[in-house]
Write a structure and sequence with these properties.
Number of strands: 8
Radius of gyration: 17 Å
Number of helices: 9
Bound molecules: BIS(adenosine)-5'-pentaphosphate
Distance between the termini: 14 Å
Shape: globular
Strand order of the largest sheet: 2-3-1-4-8
Strand content: 15-25%
Structural class: alpha/beta
Order of helices and strands: EHEHHHEHEHEEEHHEH
Helix content: 40-55%
Length: 219
């Protein structure tokens, strides 16, 4: 299955993508994670992206597109993907469409996770991530068993630089200006499914699976 998860920062795209990738046997690809990994490795791509990410701005389309084109050529993508954080502009969506056309494929569904802005600010400022394995937590809704320590690998939990409150507010503005138009873009294509992302994590997952099942039964 070829899916895109669309929604504002903090909507739960990453959280739901991890679950969906397992449930639908497809690979989870997060452009934010790819940039953070490149930065950990100290590559020129990571260093270039860091400035934009720290300011809460979008990395230029050309840089993102080259990176994602490379990733989508890898073997593990053949059984499908769950894209998280890409596309984020109409230009990126056009590139993705052309790329899929070239290999005679199309997107199956775009899942839009809708969450009110005040909830997003609380989610992002309370998020903590493992500095070793990248697992995600939240101080209130999904805390680790031992404070500050990852349940999976024992690594230290840290706050992302772009999750400080002033950067979060800027990221939400950038989202509304550049990415929200994709909701209409995909609605017009007839492949948009809308989930209420303000519910708890398991309920959102259940709603997304129900939406996909309903569509698959109808087609
Ligand atoms: P990226 O890492 O993709 O950040 P984002 O899109 O801003 O998304 P987030 O990871 O902040 O949120 P999410 O929706 O995945 O929520 P999550 O599941 O983590 O990108 C970072 C930066 O990279 C961008 O700002 C940009 O600079 C650059 N970039 C990336 N892609 C790009 C592109 N295509 N073009 C240009 N630049 C690009 O959940 C958030 C928190 O809430 C967690 O703590 C989680 O535990 C909690 N939570 C999740 N769901 C629930 C729930 N239902 N109830 C309660 N808590 C919940």
């Amino acid at each position: 299955m070829r899916l895109v998860l669309l929604g504002p920062p903090g909507a739960g795209k990453g959280t739901q993508a991890v679950k969906l990738a397992e449930e639908k046997s497809c690979v989870h690809i997060s452009t934010g994670d790819l940039f953070r990994e490149a930065l950990r490795k100290g590559t020129p791509l990571g260093v270039e992206a860091k400035g934009y990410m720290d300011r809460g701005e979008l990395v230029p389309d050309k840089v993102v597109v080259n990176m994602i084109l490379e990733r989508l050529k890898e073997d593990d993508v053949k059984n499908g993907f769950c894209l998280d954080g890409f596309p984020r502009t109409i230009e990126q969506a056009d590139v993705l469409e052309k790329l899929l056309e070239e290999i005679d494929e199309t997107l199956d569904y775009v899942i839009y996770i809708n969450v009110p802005r005040d909830v997003l600010v609380k989610r992002l400022t309370g998020r903590r991530v493992c500095s070793d394995c990248g697992a995600g937590y939240h101080l209130i809704s999904s805390p680790s068993e031992k404070e500050g320590i990852c349940n999976e690998c024992g690594g230290a939990l840290v706050q992302r630089d772009d999750d400080k409150e002033e950067t979060v507010v800027h990221r939400l503005d950038i989202y509304e200006e550049n990415t929200e138009p994709l909701v209409e873009y995909y609605r017009k294509q007839g492949i948009l499914l809308v989930a209420d992302g303000a519910q708890d994590i398991e309920s959102v997952n259940k709603e997304v699976l129900n939406l996909l099942d309903k569509e698959e039964r109808a087609n």
